[in-house]
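User: I'm writing a tutorial on reading structure tokens. Could you give me a worked example: one chain, its sequence, then its tokens, then a sentence or two explaining what the tokens reveal?
Assistant: Sure. Here is the example chain.
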Amino acid sequence: MLLDGLLSGFCARRDLRSLCLLLPAYLGDLGGDDDAERLATHARMLHAERRLPEDAQAALSEVIEALAG
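And here are its predicted structure tokens:
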């Protein structure tokens, strides 16, 4: 899963701010529609910050699209 790869990259870079934003929604995702929307919202918030490396920003865009569809 693309999101797993992003989270692994955040861990490798010790990007705690990104992890703090996404992990609660990721770990709380039990498969419901509300959980998916919460995760998508947190991903959009991180995407809007525009502070990730270019490749991670692009991967996050793909995650957001996948969560929306």
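What the tokens reveal: The chain has four helices and no strands. The first helix runs from residue 2 to 13.
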